[in-house]
Specification:
The structure holds 2 protein chains of 2 kinds.
Chain A (H helix, E strand, L loop, with lengths): L6 E10 L8 E11 L4 H14 L22 E2 L2 E2 L21 E5 L8 E3 L2 E2 L2 H8 L21 H11 L6 H5 L6 H13 L7 H14 L10 H5 L7 H15 L5
Parallel strand pairs in A: 1-5
Antiparallel strand pairs in A: 1-2, 3-4, 3-5, 6-7
Helix pairs in contact in A: 2-6, 3-5, 5-6, 5-8, 6-8
Chain B lengths: L14 H8 L12 E5 L3 H13 L2 E5 L17 E2 L11 H11 L6 H21 L24 E2 L5 H18 L3 E4 L2 E9 L2 E9 L5 E5 L2 E4 L20 H8 L4 E2 L4 E7 L22 E5 L16 E2 L1 H5 L9 H13 L11 E4 L1 H7 L1 H19 L8 E10 L2 E2 L12 E3 L17 H22 L11 H19 L6 H16 L5 H21 L11 H25 L23 H4 L1 E6 L8 E6 L14
Parallel strand pairs in B: 1-2, 1-9, 2-5, 9-17
Antiparallel strand pairs in B: 3-4, 6-7, 7-8, 10-16, 10-18, 11-15, 12-13, 12-14, 14-15, 18-19
Classes of the chains: A alpha+beta, B alpha+beta.
The structure holds flavin-adenine dinucleotide and FE2/S2 (inorganic) cluster.
């Protein structure tokens, strides 16, 4: 890399919690000689290697792709979901965003619908249940018409793609004062409502997905816009407006109630 | 033993149609009496689970991640091929077939590849119907681009997130089947053992990653769609959890492993920047459409790239391959980058990088156009490297990316174990010695939506499958073996973590089994791997407990398998005394330094049979017959 690497020393305060029902607390770790070329998760790897060889339990955190697309990683870093980087996941955050001597506080997503599994890992299966409630087009494999049979205007396809970019990480829920999953739901509802293939079920989908969101224990949307601010894919809250429109439409069709 | 791929006879175009007709059918009302296990929820496993459930089977599906939507397929960027010929530029099923055979350097089955090209068109239709937001032209038609050096535009894409969108499509269909109860989804489970009863695959043992419990599941057939083994190199473009474990367990139970030495090294990845590095990020191949690859003409030139005048730059791909230039296939591009760096022309801190320069493209098309095409890739690069690629060339270097090798399967995608089917990257079938860009997504979805759902029916309808459940002794034994293995890993209590040992394995693999191979190096690798394996079993440190979430323990299990698999890869490479596609044995090259095949002696699939821990595996051969494409030397000059 042409930009010179520096090394920095930081103080980490990390949420440690053995399991679901047990009490957790912040533990402090002094971490030295961290290259600013490291990603945030690589920094945690270094801490974990050190903990392990010193007979301690490493910090458990979810991660997989380490390039901002799988949605597996995520923690609240210094009060911000996914940390200080804009439009990026925690795994994309690099240590050059921090200064020598910084104190960094790392906590799990906090929401009633996301019980803690261990340390920074939470159970986000509620998001899957919301998709199961209607986040699909009811079509079986085989027998689909030719891909070009129904033209889709470019700007519609682009808008649908903007919404479809959601990685299901749950940062929106973690950032929302009501722990609402409204941005998540609206992204899927919008994507499918925009496209001709998703239109037939659009209203019903909005209703069933929202109902499931409530059942899973997520809160309601009160227009705080915190979700949009932390979303690593910068999904817009205009999707929530679109969701509300679909929901209202659904209200007219009593058979869906 | 000579293996039979069971490719049906008759003309190429009619094989699949004929086969589907000849396959026995399971009566629709009976399908619900059969249980199928699918391991993996990537494009292959996700699409297979959904489709089998739609047909009426009861499906039990497993994945490592907390949600089926996070399988590694999600990370694919560039696109998916299909022979739709929408741009009217001369594409056809036969051309996609031909390109794939040639791209794979004539080391895959004609029959399978032709079928793949045939169903490629259905895949696009299916995905559009699911609401996959593919890129569109102004008129509303699907957009196509040329990818990875193809001479026609047959790649469909959704920005730089094609894999994500296709996977979310499969995941949505899967979710619909979960909702109606036809698929039972088990997340955060890792398959630890395959269970055979009377020689048939009848179930699996998994570890629940949350509480460490071992769980057994029985079925009438088992489908593995567990992805590729690129992480044997430690540093790769793959996700952290990608592993060879499930495939390797099947190998130990008798499934043959085919062509493990065919591993794709992708030419355009962000180079390593330190010991702490945990993965290498792919920069999409599409960048080579506009970027020009070069190194300084003078060895060890430490000037900033912009200070090096045109006359002192070596655009080695353009010079060496005038007709394909920067768009030569992956293996060729990777090997040339390594060659330049080994000769001392590499750039960057480590000297293991080459430039990918957009200055000319920006001058020609304007920054806006380039930004529109590659904006998010440029941002990604800037974020990781700290450099601005609009101002200064990117630095790239090859990295382990894809596994063409995998478990051997016949035309029905069934392994050498009856009732065990292998899909997606985990099988060896369609890409030969080198995979073309945008063809893995196509293959995964072909397998899952349109091939397995038919062929598995043929197996079930034509086989006697006595009822059984997990009380059967075979499940008890398998679970006991797994338990013993976990206890063994926990009890070593040495002083090296699994990551640390994995990193060392990766260095051995990269240095001796990477882009350039020779007999001395490969033999050395075998010895080094064996020594490292001993070190692993004596000095492994797994912190924590096996009763709760413990990623270190998961990794230890995966590294144990990689340590055996790495040797198999080297053994396979040693046995293939030729160069083909990604397998470049330095002793076999043309005067111009191109891969030199030996069709006389090596026009076959190498399939290996497990013979016990530490023993040499047994070699089996499936001869490859080319009736429709003439074997020629690949040339990209
Ligand atoms: C960065 C990147 C970009 C790529 N871009 C492209 C592209 O543009 N075009 C293209 O065609 N190809 C591309 N590829 C290749 C392509 O993405 C993969 O080959 C393909 O997605 C593999 O799909 P799969 O379904 O076989 O496996 P995967 O998607 O890897 O899924 C494997 C599944 O198996 C599960 N699993 C694994 N082991 C176990 C176990 N022991 N127990 C339980 N579950 C297990 C995992 O949890 C996961 O669900 C790219 C690859 C990478 C790394
Ligand atoms: S690890 Fe995949 S998004 Fe961060």
């Amino acid at each position: 890399m042409t930009q010179d690497a520096k090394t920095i020393n930081i103080t980490l305060k990390v949420w440690r919690q053995k399991g679901p029902g047990v009490k957790g607390k912040l533990e402090t770790y002094q971490v030295n000689n961290i290259s600013t070329h490291m990603s945030f998760l690589e920094m945690l790897d270094v801490v974990n290697e050190d903990l392990a060889v010193n007979g301690k339990e490493p910090i458990e955190f979810d991660n997989d792709c380490r390039e901002g697309i799988c949605g597996m990683c995520g923690a609240v870093v210094n009060g911000a979901a996914h940390g200080p980087g804009k439009g990026m996941t925690l795994c994309q955050l690099h240590m050059r965003k921090f200064q020598n001597g910084d104190t960094i506080v790392v906590e799990p997503w906090r929401a009633r619908a996301f019980p803690i599994v261990k340390d920074l890992i939470v159970d986000r299966s509620a998001l899957d249940r919301i998709i199961q409630a209607g986040g699909y087009v009811s079509i079986n494999a085989g027998g689909a018409p030719d891909g070009n049979a129904v033209p889709i205007p470019q700007e519609i396809a682009e808008k649908a793609m903007d919404a479809a970019a959601c990685i299901g990480c749950g940062a929106c829920v973690a950032a929302c004062p009501n722990a609402s999953a409204m941005l998540f739901v609206s992204a899927k509802v919008s994507q499918l409502a925009l496209l001709p293939q998703g239109k037939p079920e659009a209203a019903k989908r909005a209703l069933t997905m929202l109902r499931q969101m409530d059942d899973c224990g997520f809160g309601n949307c009160s227009n705080e816009r915190e979700c949009e601010a932390v979303c690593p894919k910068e999904i817009s809250i205009t999707n929530i407006a679109r969701l509300n429109r679909e929901y209202l439409k659904a209200g007219f069709f009593s058979e869906f109630k | 033993m000579q293996l039979d791929g069971k490719v049906p006879g008759g003309p190429l175009e009619a094989k699949w149609d004929r086969h589907r007709f000849e396959l026995k059918l399971v009566n629709p009302a009976n399908k619900r009496k059969f249980n199928i296990i699918v391991v993996g929820t990537g494009l292959a496993g996700g699409s297979a689970s959904a489709t089998l459930a739609e047909l009426g089977y009861n499906v039990q599906t497993f994945c490592i991640q907390d949600s089926p939507r996070r399988a590694h397929s999600i990370a694919a960027q560039g696109g998916i091929n299909a022979s739709k010929n929408y741009p009217n530029d001369g594409d056809s099923i036969r051309r996609l077939f031909y390109d794939t055979v040639k791209g794979g350097d004539f080391r895959a089955r004609e029959g399978n590849i032709y079928r793949l090209a045939q169903v490629s068109e259905n895949i696009i239709d299916q995905c559009v119907a699911q609401g996959v937001p593919f890129a569109r032209e102004y008129g509303g038609q699907l957009a196509n681009r040329s990818f990875g050096g193809a001479q026609v535009s047959r790649t469909f894409y959704a920005r730089g997130q094609t894999g994500q969108q296709l996977l979310l499509g499969a995941y949505s269909s899967l979710s619909r089947q979960i909702a109606v109860g036809k698929v039972k989804m088990y997340t955060r489970r890792e398959m630890q053992e395959l269970v055979l009863v009377n020689g048939q695959a009848r179930g699996i043992v998994v570890r629940n990653l949350i509480n460490g419990e071992l769980e057994s599941y029985a079925a009438d057939a088992v489908v593995l769609a567990t992805g590729g083994y690129g992480n044997v190199f430690y540093l790769s473009t793959n996700a952290a959890s990608c592993n060879v474990g499930a495939a390797f367990k099947a190998y130990r139970k008798g499934a043959f492993f085919a062509n493990p030495c065919y591993t794709q090294i992708h030419p355009t990845c962000i180079p390593q920047s330190g010991h702490f590095q945990s993965k290498l990020t792919l920069m999409s191949e599409s960048l080579r459409n506009d970027g020009r690859v070069w190194v300084p003409k003078n060895k060890g030139d430490k000037r900033k790239p912009n200070e090096i005048p045109e006359s002192e730059r070596n655009y080695y791909l353009e010079i060496k391959y005038p007709s394909f230039g920067n768009l030569v296939p992956r293996d060729v591009a990777s090997r040339n980058a390594k060659e330049q760096c080994d000769a001392g022309y590499g750039v960057g801190e480590t000297g293991y990088a080459v430039y990918l320069d957009f200055a000319d493209a920006i001058r020609r098309d304007g920054k806006d156009v380039i930004q529109k095409k590659y904006g998010n890739l440029f941002d990604m690069y800037a974020n990781i490297s700290g450099d601005d690629p609009y101002q200064t060339p990117m630095m790239i270097y090859p990295a382990s990316h894809y596994a063409m090798g995998g478990l051997w399967v016949d035309y029905n995608l069934m392994s050498t174990i009856p009732g065990l089917f292998i899909l997606g990257e985990a099988n060896f079938s369609d890409h030969g010695a080198n995979r073309l860009g945008a063809s893995a997504l196509m293959q995964g979805l072909a397998d899952g939506y349109f091939i397995l759902p038919y062929t598995i029916g043929g197996y079930i309808a034509g086989t006697s499958l006595p009822r059984l459940n997990t009380d059967h002794a075979a499940f008890k034994e398998a679970a006991a073996d797994v338990k013993a293995n976990v206890e063994r890993l926990m009890s070593i209590k040495g002083n090296r973590t699994a990551d640390d040992l994995h990193r060392e394995l990766g260095e051995i693999m990269w240095n001796y089994c990477g882009m350039g191979r020779n007999e001395e190096g490969l033999s050395k690798a075998v010895t080094l791997i064996r020594n490292l394996r001993d070190e692993f079993w004596q000095n492994l440190l797994v912190p924590g407990s096996d009763q709760d979430y413990n990623l270190s323990l998961q990794k230890a299990g995966r590294v144990a398998d990689f340590l055996e698999f790495g040797e198999l890869l080297a053994v396979d490479a040693l046995a293939r005394k030729e160069s083909c596609g990604s397998h470049f044995n330095e002793a076999y090259q043309t005067e111009e330094g191109e891969a030199l095949r030996d069709d006389e002696n090596f026009c076959h699939v190498s399939a290996w049979e497990y013979k016990g821990f530490g023993n040499e595996p047994e070699f089996h051969k499936e001869p490859l017959v080319f009736e429709n494409v003439k074997l020629t030397q690949r040339s990209y000059k």
